[in-house]
Amino acid sequence: MVDKTRLYLSEMGVDIFWFRTKPITNHGSDDNLSIIEKNVEDCKKCSLHKIRDNIVFGDGDSSADLMIIGEAPGREEDKAGKPFIGRAGKLLNSFLSSINLDRESIFITNTVKCRPPENRNPSEAEIQSCSGFLDRQIDIIKPKVLVLLGKIAANRLLNQDKPISELRLKKFFIEKYNIPIIVFYHPAYILRSPSQKTKVWDDLKFLKSIISSDDC
Ligand code: SF4
Q1: Distance (Å, rounded) from C-alpha 40 to C-alpha 73?
Q2: Can you name the CATH fold of 28-211?
Q3: Which site among 2, 7, 71, 74 is 20 to 30 Å from 181 CA-CA?
Q4: Residues 22-44: pLDDT tens digits?
Q5: How far is ligand 1, taken at its centre, from the CA of residue 150, in Å?
């Protein structure tokens, strides 16, 4: 059918350079993410734009099955414009590789896209101002599992103001996304409290069980 159409258009003298022989792929789209990234670059919706060196949009596979959402960029992320590249990021990479996941196969971003001063928590107003960008990223990537790192991300997506100890090892579903959402300790917290590191292994096993289950 496609070849017949191409032939027909060609015989009509119509330029067919645009004619796709393959359908546009499944969920994620780099083009759509690029549009949002440009919107974030231009964004001045909250005061964090005044002190950023770079926006930190997020990176990874735009069709990822697994999307990880942290809190906010830190100093190194702000300088490089990339998420999770400091010590916490390296720890996160090692957690992921322990269950055979690599950074390139997932998408990682933050709740807010600009660094709060002195690495303070983003305010409720800043989180709200930035919320549309995160929602659009999730809509485009359409992950099959969301992992929220720490209280800020958990609060934003699940509307649960509880300690992480009460949220981890549970599977949440929210009407908007209807995919499993789970909560991990933030790797920065694990760096500050290394005694909690053993619990991360339980979190990773839990994630792995969800990835291999029928929910995905
Ligand atoms: S944190 Fe979000 S809302 Fe605030 S300026 Fe940056 S991109 Fe805009």
Answers
A1: 14
A2: Uracil-DNA Glycosylase, subunit E (3.40.470)
A3: 74
A4: 333 345 667 799 999 999 999 99
A5: 20
